[in-house]
Amino acid sequence: MAHENPLWGAPRIHGELLKLGLEVAQSTVSKYLRRHSRPSGQTWKTFIENHKDALAAVDLFVVPTIGFKLLYGIAILHLKRRELVWTNATLHPTAEWIAQQLTEAFPWEQAPSYLIRDRDTSYGSVFKRRLESLGIRDHPTAPRSPWQNGYAERIIGSIRRECLDHTIIFGEAHLRRTLRSYAYYYNRARTHLALAKDSPIHRPVQRRGEVMAHHHLGGLHHEYARMA
Question: What is 45-195's CATH topology?
Answer without folding.
Answer: Nucleotidyltransferase; domain 5 (3.30.420)
